[in-house]
Specification:
single chain; 6-stranded mixed β-sheet; about 1250 residues; mainly beta
């Protein structure tokens, strides 16, 4: 062994600097004291060349003979035993090799010493460790008493945690009574960390139950005032909800280590745990399965995530730095898994922030998934029981923002399903510098199998015939055994997903050699063969233990930390390895935290750099940090924590007047005080197979000066039964609210404010025609409160509404897109063009056939794509294309394919145009469904949907589909769901097994001619860059944009840098039962780079915090300060107004004065001209765009440099240049 004393810079790190540390390696700071750091460096055993992947080692060769068998009768009598047992990996004898400890749920525990070269020997252990007196569940090696030797903690069914102190690496002493960890609870997983900062390891124990009341033949109940209640002796154990008995779990225990290894339990109601700032009134009684300590918000303190089974909610506790915890708000994380089994953390998307992954029970196989009864919370919707979050039956990936808030992105990542899972572990298995994840999975039987459940239900009978409780219980258990054997087996592989580095994963289970099936439950990792990568250790129920050798062959480095005497493994430390380029990897040292298991604390990093340029930054548990340069590839480093001597504040002069980050926008919504409240409309009762609600798409919004005082006003639509509201600007961002004298009979949709002859302004408001059918959809209103319907027979359902100069000069033409017909989705009302002239309005008759060919319109905009002075009409469609109707001097022609958009079918929504690359041609930004749902689509595997009035009832059936086997298209929804509307399927399929493997064509062969297929090849919200030569190039917007459906969106230069930016709004929470709500989005600001790429601002940078169902979005300079502000509506939420407070130079406010029938110059194109004659990005004046929105016609332009003129191309193609003098901040350009 080579031992080096390495010179390094050591300092105490103020915890608030941690967020910076993750992104930048610590520099050599002048004035810091230099101290010697003890680092032991040894070369690693040479790795093989088989990888990447794993090899299952032969148990005969390793001599690990442990089996974890369970007597079937014991399992039938107590189902909690089926949850299995775990494994601990750690070097208990300090010989440098990780050893193994296996728990037996119905057998003796085994300890194996690692002899090297994949040889192990069984070690004699004391009787109380071999058989603690109760089934053993979980195990963790940890130095509880700080003597430098790993002690052993064993959780049991009914005796709490048994503590065994290591006697110098020679034997273990039962120290349970001395440590104080015993209890009567059914303990499961354990996690250790220093939560209170005293330097010792504290212990959190997740408790489940020792038995399940459902395994009792009879549960005594009583009636109190006619209400069914549990018997008095069971009041604290069960409750009755909707006639069903539900059982509470047991309270978890947090033990504080008072040293050395003497543990004191914390009172849940003492104030150590708080919700909404208040101490808990009672200890939560949860079904605890796993718990893990991690720093979730980057403040340097370990926080706690607890996975709970059944209906009990996951608990996320944020450490206040003093050892007390506050519950994370439901706003910071709003969805969790329903049956949360295990959790792990990593920087999945490589942004420097901790992401969390929680596993559940959703099958990877769509065929098997449809055979299984969907899991659901039996007490859902009761916050006092379920907590503040929605619980859904799939894996959840929480992408962190570094400040304690998370977005659920499992479907985007491709990690939503991994079968009946237990323990996820992130690791760089293939040593490519990107974290992968492996998941233990399997269960003795598929207890969700629908056909078996139905069979068992048919066999239910009374238990009153037994004369004694003992006889009844014996018979009950006998029958339970018989029923369990009816279920299919559910052995599963160790599921492996390879990380791609962009927050997404691909399954590689069989490719990496972990495909052999079993009941893999307890799962831990460690470098068992000394080659510097993590090998796998699994405890398998009803099978032999499994050891997998990691065959990765790439360069690596292994890091082991040695902490202070009270925390010898440096639990809670963080490490960042930087390769000298732009690549960095982060690791955290955890103890326990795995499902029933705990792994070795040595960490592994891939070495990507060809030179020894890598640096290692360590932040120790006490907040001090160390910095190590010249990390050698294929070596093991053992780094000892030095004693802290200086404080950061003693060494570095920290400015006390450092300005806080000023966000780009400030919230001024209180000036509007507007809330959208939807009238109740059960869309799914009207059309039961509808995928999402159609009555929650508004309200729309208009921003413009409607009363001629040159102050921007705001008109907001409404839902059925509401009045539209006009907010009249009074200057200084104050508004007078006026409710228009018109009650909506349908939800409002598109809206337009348009000048009409006589220097007047009229407002046009469309309605969807969805709730109340066959009624006029278009209303014309004036400021006197007068209104009238237009084209009552021709327009009975309108969605988007946009106006543009079809003929160049002259009046405007309004496109009115037909919206969905009630009970007939996806059929739509016809779309129309309406022309404005001096005498009024007239329907277009020239383009009827063209418009009839465009179905399911969702958004629209007029934009002059080729710069000829005649605006094209762009229409987005759902289950269709982004259609380009090219304008040739007033004649529209469908040129979608010619513009290169013919292959992009999607669920397109709102659309805006903007010059995102500065080439002087409008690009298109189009909202889509996103990729964070169970709807997925690619060009090769499009999303398919069929529809038709199959039963001739006047209601269209929707058949959502998915792929299985050899890309066969089968129904996505379960037989119980689809069969409820199409009963012939029950007879045709017979059972769930046959239905699950049937194709759509097989099931609907008799009705095939009545079905119509729709397809979507992409669900990404996209930018289509306009090259200027008549073709578009697709550019995907950043990942965050793809996490939810996009509705409203607008373009503007919000930071004043002369480059166009984007603001967009997301979310669709009104979806069918069984579909994940699409509510993981927000209103976000995308700062343009000038080349079609963007930086997404986080909420702290943007100042925008809107998490509801964002809809219409419009921009205007409300306070006339030369900066663009915006307003966004929310369906069933408050309308939000945000004022731009950028520190950029004031822009140029541009007002146009065109002809009397197009006074605002709608359709004009604007650019600023710099003194070097370069031109800024092109901006168009439009009447309607985005989603049911209209921007102010007075816009704001910014130049990159000093500007000298305004360039205007008017409708029809005429170009004028208007000089700007000095710092002129406003101009009116007259035609």
């Amino acid at each position: 062994m080579m031992v080096f004393l390495v010179k390094m810079f050591f300092h105490v790190l103020n915890r608030s600097f941690w967020g910076v540390l993750l992104c930048f390696c610590l520099p050599c700071v002048s004035g810091l004291s230099a101290e010697e750091l003890q680092v032991e460096i040894t070369s690693l055993k040479a790795a093989g060349d088989q990888g990447p992947g794993f090899t299952l080692m032969n148990a005969v060769e390793t001599q690990v003979s442990f089996r974890n068998d369970l007597d079937p009768r014991k399992g039938a009598a107590n189902r909690v035993l089926f949850n299995g047992s775990g494994v601990a990996v750690g070097d208990w004898d300090n010989d440098g090799l990780p050893d193994l400890f296996f728990c037996g749920i119905d057998s003796s525990n085994h300890l194996y010493r690692n002899l090297g070269q994949w040889k192990f020997e069984k070690v004699s252990i004391p009787p109380s460790l071999q058989n603690p007196g109760a089934p053993s569940r979980g195990a963790v090696f940890a130095d509880l008493n700080g003597d430098g030797y790993l002690d052993l903690l064993v959780s049991t069914v009914g005796m709490g945690v048994r503590s065994f102190f290591n006697q110098g690496g020679l034997e273990f002493e039962d120290a349970t009574q001395k440590a104080g960890t015993g209890s009567e609870f059914g303990a499961t997983s354990m996690a250790l960390a220093d939560v209170d900062g005293n330097g010792t390891l504290d212990l959190y124990v997740a408790n489940y139950r020792s038995n399940d009341i459902r395994d009792q033949a009879r549960v005594p109940v009583r009636r109190v005032r006619g209400r069914l209640m549990p018997s008095e002796e069971l009041t604290d154990r069960v409750f009755i909800h909707e006639g069903q008995i539900h059982e509470y779990g047991e309270s978890d225990i947090l033990y504080l280590n008072n040293g050395p290894g003497k543990m004191t339990p914390v009172d849940w109601t003492s104030g150590a745990f708080r919700e909404n700032g208040q101490a808990l009134k009672a200890a939560p009684k949860d079904w605890g399965l796993s718990a893990m300590f991690r720093d979730l918000n980057g403040d340097g303190h370990v926080d706690l995530y607890v996975c709970n089974d059944y209906w009990t909610p996951d608990r996320i506790w944020i450490n206040d730095g003093q050892g007390s915890f506050d519950a994370l708000s439901g706003e910071a994380l709003n969805i969790t898994s329903l049956s949360s089994m295990g959790v792990d953390g990593a920087d999945v998307n490589r942004d420097g922030d901790v992401d969390l992954f929680v596993v559940d029970m959703l099958s990877r196989d769509p065929v098997l998934r449809k055979r299984q009864q969907p899991a659901e919370s039996m007490v859902g919707g009761i916050p006092s029981l379920n907590g503040p979050r929605l619980q859904l039956p799939y894996n959840t990936l929480f992408t962190g923002n570094g400040k304690g808030a998370f977005t659920e992105t499992s479907h985007f990542a491709g990690l939503e399903a991994s079968d009946w899972s237990w323990c996820p572990i992130f690791m760089d298995a293939d040593l490519d510098g990107i974290d992968d994840v492996l998941i233990s999975a399997g269960y003795p039987h598929d207890m969700q199998d629908s056909d078996t459940l139905r069979l068992i239900q048919s066999r239910q009978h009374s238990w009153d015939r037994y004369s004694t409780d003992a006889a009844r219980q014996k018979a009950f258990t006998d029958e339970m055994m018989q029923h369990i054997e009816l279920y299919p087996g559910l052995e599963m592989p160790v599921v492996a997903y390879r990380g791609k580095g962009n927050g997404t994963f691909e399954e590689v289970t069989h490719l990496w050699g972990t495909g052999k099936k079993g009941i893999h439950q307890g799962f831990a990792v460690g470098d068992l063969d000394g080659d510097g990568d993590w090998d796998l250790v699994l405890n398998c129920l009803n099978g032999s233990a499994r050891l997998f050798r990691n065959d990765a062959s790439k360069d690596r480095v292994a890091i082991r930390l040695k902490g202070t005497p009270s925390n010898t493994q440096a639990i809670g430390s963080k490490m960042v390895l930087n390769d000298g380029k732009s690549n960095s990897a982060t690791r955290s040292i955890v103890s326990g935290g795995r499902y029933l298991s705990g792994g070795d604390t040595e960490q592994v990093f891939a070495m990507l750099s060809s030179k020894e340029a890598s640096t290692l930054t360590i932040v120790w548990p006490d907040g001090t940090s160390s910095f190590l340069e010249g990390i050698k590839r294929n070596h093991r480093y053992t780094v000892h924590q030095p004693e802290a001597s200086d404080k950061w504040s003693d060494l570095v002069d920290i400015p006390t007047d450092q300005a806080a980050l000023i966000p780009l926008f400030r919230d001024a919504s209180s000036q509007l005080s507007h809330i959208s409240r939807s009238a109740f409309s059960d869309d799914f009762a009207k059309q039961p197979l509808l995928p999402y609600a159609l009555s929650h798409h508004g309200p729309g919004v208009i921003c413009m000066d409607v009363n001629g005082d040159k102050i921007t006003d705001i008109l907001i639509g409404g839902e059925k039964g509401q009045h539209p509201t006009l907010h009249i600007g009074k200057g200084d961002v104050e508004f007078e609210t006026k409710e228009l004298d018109f009650r909506l009979i349908n939800d409002s949709s598109g809206m337009l404010g348009m000048p009409v002859p006589g220097n007047r302004m009229h407002l046009f408001l469309a309605q969807t025609g969805y709730e109340t059918i066959r009624q006029p959809a278009l209303m014309e209103l004036n400021l006197k409160g007068q209104h009238r319907s237009l084209f009552s027979t021709a327009l009975t359902g309108v969605g988007p509404m946009v106006a543009g100069p079809l003929n160049g000069q002259g009046g405007l033409t309004v496109f009115m897109g037909g919206t969905y017909i009630s009970r007939h989705y996806p059929l739509t009302h016809p779309s129309q063009l309406v022309h404005q002239d001096e005498t009024g309005w007239r329907l277009d008759s020239v383009h009827e056939d063209l418009l009839r060919s465009i179905q399911r319109s969702r958004g629209a905009v007029w934009s002059d794509l080729n710069g000829d002075g005649f605006a094209e009409l762009i229409i987005t469609t759902e289950w269709g294309l982004v259609r380009v109707l090219q304008n040739t001097r007033g004649k529209l022609e469908d040129r979608t394919h010619a513009w290169g958009l013919g292959s992009y079918t999607g669920l397109w929504g709102g659309v805006v145009s903007g010059d995102m690359d500065g080439n002087g041609f409008p690009d298109l930004i189009v909202g889509n469904w996103g990729r964070n749902s169970d709807w997925q689509a690619t060009g090769k595997s499009p999303l398919n949907m069929y529809h038709g009035d199959i039963l001739k009832t006047g209601v269209r059936e929707i058949i959502e589909t998915e792929y299985h086997q050899q890309k066969l298209i089968s129904p996505k929804r379960h037989l119980s769901e689809l069969g409820a509307q199409l009963p012939f399927l029950f007879k045709l399929a017979g059972n769930n097994a046959r239905y699950s493997s049937s194709t759509v064509r097989e099931l609907f062969a008799h009705y095939w001619d009545s079905l119509t297929a729709l397809r979507a090849s992409t669900l990404d919200t996209c930018l289509f860059l306009n090259s200027g030569n008549g073709a578009f190039q697709q550019v995907l917007l950043p990942d965050e944009v793809q996490w939810a459906p996009v509705f409203g969106l607008q373009v503007g230069d919000f930071n004043g840098d002369g480059i166009e930016d984007v603001v967009l709004g997301q979310n669709q929470s009104h979806v069918r039962e069984g579909m994940p709500p699409q509510n993981q989005g927000r209103v976000m600001i995308l700062i343009g780079k000038g080349d079609g790429q963007f930086n997404v601002l986080d909420e702290a940078e943007s100042g925008v915090k809107v998490h509801g169902n964002a809809r219409a979005l419009a921009v205007a300079d409300f306070n006339q300060d030369g900066r663009l502000d915006f307003v966004v509506t929310q369906n069933e939420g408050a309308t939000k107004l945000y004022l731009n407070q950028s520190d950029s130079k004031q822009g140029v406010r541009v007002r146009l004065n065109h002809t009397r029938v197009n006074r605002h110059g709608t359709g004009s194109q604007l650019r600023l001209v710099d003194y070097d004659d370069s031109m800024g990005p092109l901006r168009e004046v439009q009447a309607g765009n985005g989603w049911y929105s209209q921007n102010s016609p007075v816009t704001v332009l910014h130049g990159k440099n000093k500007v000298r003129a305004l360039w205007v191309k008017w409708p029809g193609g005429k170009v004028n240049t208007y000089p700007l003098k000095g710092d002129q901040s406003e101009i009116e350009a007259v035609y």
